[in-house]
Amino acid sequence: MLELLWEPLQYSFMQRSLIVAVLVGMICAVVGSYLMVRRLAMLGDAISHALLPGLAIAFALGVNLYIGAFIAGVLSTVVIAWIQTRSPIKEDAAMGIVLSSFFALGITLITIIQRDNKIDLNHFLFGNILGVSSGEVRDTAIITIVVLATVVLLYKELLFYSFDPLGAQAAGLPVNLLNFGQMILIALTVVASMKSVGVVLVLAMLITPGAIAYLLVPRLHQVMLLGALLGMVSSVAGLYLSYYYNIPSGPAIVLVISGLFFLTLLFSPRYGVLKRSLSMPLPLWRDLQAWLRR
Amino acid sequence: MFQANPNHSSSVLSGDRSIEVQHLTVMYQDVQALRNLTVTIAAGQLVGIFGPNGAGKSTLVKAMLGLIPAATGTVTYGDRPLAEQRQRVAYVPQRSQIDWTFPATVWDVVMMGRVRKTGFLRPFSGVSRRLAVNALERVGMAEYGDRRIGDLSGGQQQRVFLARSLAQDADIFCFDEPFVGVDQTTEQILFSIFRELASQGKTVMVVNHDLGESITHFDHLILLNRELIAAGDRRSVLQPQHMTRAYGGHVRFFEPQAA
Known about the structure:
The complex is a heterodimer of chains A (294) and B (259). With 294 residues, chain A is mainly α. The longest helix of chain A has 26 residues, at 12-37. Chain A contains 14 helices and no strands. Chain A has helices at 2-6, 12-37, 41-61, 65-86, 91-114, 121-126, 134-153, 155-163, 165-170, 175-193, 202-214, 220-245, 249-267, 283-293. Chain A starts with a helix and ends with a helix. In chain A, helix 3 packs antiparallel against helix 11 (202-214) and helix 12 (220-245) crosses helix 13. Chain B has a single domain, classed as Rossmann fold. In chain B, a hairpin with a 3-residue loop joins strand 9 and strand 10. With 259 residues, chain B is of the alpha/beta class. The termini of chain B are far apart. Classes of the chains: A mainly alpha (294), B alpha/beta (259). The A-B interface holds A 37, 39, 88, 153-154, 156-157, 159-160, 162-164, 166-173, 214, 217-220, 222-223 and B 29, 62, 65, 67, 86-87, 89-93, 97-99, 102-105, 108-109, 111-113, 115-116, 118, 120-121, 124, 148, 164, 168, 174.
């Protein structure tokens, strides 16, 4: 059994993948906790899809792909905010429009570039963690340090703002800056996740670890810590699945974390659907009965 | 801007300052939410902001604090715009504005009151912790520090927010509909602390809609319906002609006995 875990690590590509898996699993969970508590899951999805055109343009210009993707990600949040302030279009509709238009542009550009270059669209869409370069490991490490340092240093301000934006604004906190800071954190995190989970499925890594932790612990920093642990474990598990079964790393990682989520939903001591006391029937059974009686 | 208030220039104590609202107009898209409102809110009094639904009560408070933009008008406190002095403000939003399933404990929420005073990149001080403990004791919630905010009753949640505002150590307190969905005990605690704050010379504004007996707790009333209907001491505002103008027809309200 241990042999199965150690054996692949003799390859340097596997060591690089492992480092990226751990780092990405960690920061996705931490930053994603903000998205979950602020009910901005859709925004995470929008930013991640919006990275693609930046990626393509950066590739065509020969600059660092991460920088191009980051600029496109931040630009998408600016466009979403602009649509909202300039028109009566609601937030979710604005996100939907920006997500799909950026994504379409990205796929078009990459397809054009793909014809005479060695770049594989699928790797960005669904992740290719076994193919990370040492430069990408370095960039991921830098992003991880920046993200974690920001979350730690601004923890109390971001907590107040996330919980009660009006109260925080009334107390004199610079709420626009804090909001923009959160957007930057999300964009950085999604950029770092491109290679491991890919832009289509990164939402799962942002939301699900925090959601599992939320079912188990009561405070935001605990949600972040436990979520980070779960994110790291599932990233590494997905990496091995990807290695042994030759499947894209994104779906492998996401299947592991999603499996953990449904197990927690069933067995969580506080919210578990299968939680039962001796005097009460199974909640699941009760729900079923209520449904049958409708 | 000139102030006709003689207390203002002579006073050093923040507690003696008043909030001057001049010609405030607030627009939502093309609709006037508040029209040309001029009123003075004195410190040291318990001020109630009343009016029917949609009268612009919450809008007035938010516009005064600069949380929403004003189309015209100024709001000053002392000699500067109030919006530039938000470190003096403690604001408790309506219950419906808060996500009560948020992963935070009572202690987390009360400590939010110390975030601004603590400043960026600094941990909470021992003084801040003591202020938070005192605030929780004053509202009778000292034993609930480790509880999830979502596990409390509506009244207890409101008391935690009151404790947060006390921990802010502010000069101006604004409460938006604090009595909605709270029990008798909480209502008594809220009024006794509002009274205490006012007697310390703080400015205390409470948005409310209950015209029953509880209205006698307020010294000063501001009656709104998209514009100022009346402002002043309770007895002068609670006149049938004002109430008819505000509520558009006959309305029952607690009339002070001629004692």
